[in-house]
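Collaborator request, handled under Task 6.
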Amino acid sequence: MSVNTSMNWKQLLSAKRWGYEHRVSDSHLIARSEFQRDYDRLIFSSPFRRLQNKTQVFPLPGAVFVHNRLTHSLEVASVGRSLGRLFYTKMKDADSEIDELYPYLQEVGNMVSAACLSHDLGNPAFGHSGEAAISTYFTEGDGRKYQEQVTKEEWADLTHFEGNANALRILTHPFNGKDDKGFALTYTSLASIVKYPCAAIDGHIKKNHHRKKYGYFASERETFETIAAELGLLEDPTNPKGYLRHPLVYLVEAADDICYNIIDLEDAHHLKILSYPEVEDLLLPLCGGEDLRARLDSLYDTASRVALLRAKAINTLTKACVDVFYNEQEQFLKGTFPSALMDALDADIVAHLKRINKISVAKIYNAPTVVQIEVAGYKVMNALLAEFVPAYLKKNKNSYDEKLVALIPHQFYTDQEDSYSKIRSVLDFVSGMTDVYAIDLYRKITGMIIPSID
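C-alpha cells returned to the collaborator:
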C-alpha cells in the first residue's frame, strides 16, 4: 500500500479503464471523454433502466408521480455535475495553468456525474427495507444455517447486505455470458462510488465516517485493492486492511444528500403528506437569503411554488458544499476530513437540515404507505431467498429444486462450488429484481396466482 501522506489529483483522476488497462487514452483531446463514455454506458444499461421500478421512498406505481430510484439517480447526477464543475471553476480561477498540471481536472464534473448515476445501482427492491430483509434472512431466518459454511469475512457480507458494495460488484463482476470486464468503467468512476472503502468485517464503526458501513464484498476485495493501488488511495490508519476515501466520494455523497433532503419534501407535498405552508417553512430558509416572496405569491399553483423553493435550496446547498470542498482541499487529499460535506456547512444550515430530517422521519419515512411497502418488502425478499438459496446450494436436487433453479437467469450461475459463491449468485439475482418483478415472482412461486399461458 501507499506510504504517502497525501493523495494527489494527477494520480486520482485516471482515464484508465477497468479490464482495458493497456489502452492509452487521450480523452481530454476528443469530443466525448472517457468519463462521458462512463455516463453513457450507465444510461443505456439494463441495471440502470431497472431502477425505474425500484422504490425510492414512496410505493410504486401510484396515481401521483413520485420519485423512483431512476429519477433520483438522474437528479443526483445533475447536482453532482454542478458540484464538480463549480469545483473545477474555482481551481481554474485560482490557477490559470491548472489544466497543464492536472489534464483531467476539467472533467471532474463528468466523473462525479457518472459516479452519481451508478451510486444506487446495487440497491435491491423496496428501498432500504430490501437491504434489511436480505440481511435478516441470514441473521434471523433460515439462512443462519450457512454460517459454518463460509468464512467470517464472507458471513459479515451476508449478514449486512450493502447496496453500495453491490454496485461495485455489478460494475466489475464477470457475470456468466456477459462481458468479463463488467461495465469497463474508468478507475476514477469506480472509486468515486465507494463511500466506505473497507470490507464488511472492518466496517460499521460509527465514529469513523468512512467506515460507518462498508464498500466491497469479500468477492470484490482484490478488485478494489487494484483500483486503490492505481489511484494512490491512502491506507486507513485505523484499519490496515482498508483505505481512505477517494476525495470525489464526498461530492457524490453530497449530491445524494442534497437531493433526498430536499426532494423528498416535494414528493410529500404531491402526496398531501405535507401542506404547502409546511414545505415553504422548511425550504425558504435554505434559499440563500434571496427575497422570493413576490415570485412565490405570483404562482397560484402550489406545485410550482415548491419547485421554485426546491431549485433555490439545491442551489444554496450546492454552492456551500463546493466552498467547503475547495477550502478544505488539503484535508480531503490527506483523507482526514471527518464528516460528510453537508455536516460541515454553516451551523445555521446544518441545524435547519436536522430539522428537515426530524420532520421527514416523523411524517414521511414513517407514513403508513411507506411502512406498508417496507413490511411487504421484508416478506417478499425473505420468501424468495428461502426458496432459491437452498435450492441452488443443494448437491442432490429434487424435481422442485431443479425447477426453482431453472427460474434463475443463466448470467447469475457460477462455476464455483463453495457456498459463499453460490449464495452470492442468488443474491445477485434477487437484489437485481424490481419491486414489481419481485412481487410477481413471489406470488407465482407461493401459488398465490397461477401463471397464464399466452
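The cover message to the collaborator said: "The two ends are 58 Å apart (CA to CA). The mean pLDDT is 90. Please let us know whether this matches your experimental observations."
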